[in-house]
């Protein structure tokens, strides 16, 4: 059965897209059939997967608005190892249309992904860094949420708002949604603030805090400019190894 995971955090710069791309590649390397959905108008997951966001025959916009079927738009990314439902700046138009879309506007992505039932083991949705209608669509479609989080003071404040939104989604349109895990990114154990925030997260969230951490690593930062996940660009780097460990932890945790 397909597991749909939304990667979201309304705070930008926490490694959300980097996690989405590298987790997709790591799961694919472990023989899972993976679809990565780029729902962020910035299109960074599309570029990081080796596709040109400026030269697409179709995008997730067409799918969300019902103009094309997902199978008409999905790209194979052989170097990365997974399939991609690409996105780009055109998604801002979807946000405008969804705002005035009336009843059912939060279920557009649910309808689209239903057409792919059984085709993939895992669907990862890279959400925009804001709590808008695109993110609401992702949370409505998802079985659970993976929250990348940098260990800094303001991150905790943003996390509270995100968890409130997830609870609202759970109470209204998607009662099955869960917090699949909170992932510490750009992690530096030498930093006292990092250690302090980690302790607060562990005390408050318990098992929801993933054991895996993603370290700061230059290879992770370089990989997107080559259109590759770090697992393909520098497979023996610390960043690559950390994402493989993350994939294995989620496989155990979620029975993927």
Provide structural commentary.
There is one protein chain. By secondary structure, this protein is of the alpha/beta class. The chain has a single domain (3-254), classed as 3-Layer(aba) Sandwich (Rossmann fold), CATH 3.40.50.300. It is 44% helix and 18% strand. It contains twelve helices and eight strands. The chain has helices at 16-29, 44-48, 60-64, 70-73, 91-99, 108-114, 133-141, 153-172, 192-205, 218-222, 230-233, 238-254; strands at residues 3-7, 34-38, 75-77, 82-85, 122-126, 144-150, 178-187, 209-215. An eight-stranded mixed sheet has the order 3-4-2-5-1-6-7-8, with helices on both faces. Strand 7 (178-187), helix 9 and strand 8 form a beta-alpha-beta unit. Helix 1 (16-29) packs across helix 12. It is globular, with a radius of gyration of 17 Å.
Helices, strands, pairings?
Blueprint: E1 3-7, H1 16-29, E2 34-38, H2 44-48, H3 60-64, H4 70-73, E3 75-77, E4 82-85, H5 91-99, H6 108-114, E5 122-126, H7 133-141, E6 144-150, H8 153-172, E7 178-187, H9 192-205, E8 209-215, H10 218-222, H11 230-233, H12 238-254
Parallel strand pairs: 1-5, 1-6, 2-4, 2-5, 6-7, 7-8
Antiparallel strand pairs: 3-4
Mean pLDDT: 92
Distance linking N and C termini: 9 Å
Number of strands: 8
Radius of gyration over all CA atoms, rounded: 17 Å
Which geometry do the CA atoms define?
Answer: globular
Explain briefly what this protein structure is.
Residues 2-179 form the AAA domain. Pfam families: AAA_31. The chain is an alpha/beta fold and 256 residues long.
For this entry, give a set of tags.
8-stranded mixed sheet; globular; Rossmann fold; 256 residues
């Amino acid at each position: 059965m397909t597991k749909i995971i939304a990667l979201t955090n309304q705070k930008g710069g926490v490694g959300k897209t980097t996690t989405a791309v590298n987790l997709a590649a790591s799961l694919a390397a472990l023989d899972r059939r993976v679809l990565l959905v780029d729902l962020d108008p910035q299109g960074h997951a599309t570029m990081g997967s080796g596709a040109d966001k400026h030269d697409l025959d179709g995008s997730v916009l067409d799918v969300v608005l019902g103009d094309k079927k997902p199978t008409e738009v999905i790209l194979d990314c052989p170097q990365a190892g997974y399939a991609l439902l690409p996105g780009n700046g055109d998604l801002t138009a979807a946000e405008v249309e969804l705002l005035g879309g009336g009843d059912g506007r939060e279920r557009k992505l649910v309808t689209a992904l239903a057409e792919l039932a059984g085709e993939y083991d895992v669907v990862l949705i890279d959400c925009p860094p804001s709590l808008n209608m695109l993110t609401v669509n992702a949370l409505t479609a998802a079985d659970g949420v993976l929250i990348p989080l940098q260990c800094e003071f303001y991150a905790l404040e943003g996390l509270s708002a995100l968890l409130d939104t997830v609870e609202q989604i759970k109470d209204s349109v998607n009662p099955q949604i869960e917090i699949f895990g909170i992932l510490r990114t750009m992690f530096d154990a030498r930093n006292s603030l990092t250690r302090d925030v980690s302790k607060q997260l562990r005390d408050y969230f318990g098992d929801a805090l993933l054991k895996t951490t993603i370290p700061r690593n230059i290879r992770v930062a370089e990989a997107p400019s080559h259109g590759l996940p770090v697992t393909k660009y520098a497979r023996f780097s610390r960043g690559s190894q950390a994402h493989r460990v993350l994939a294995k932890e989620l496989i155990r945790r979620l029975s993927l």
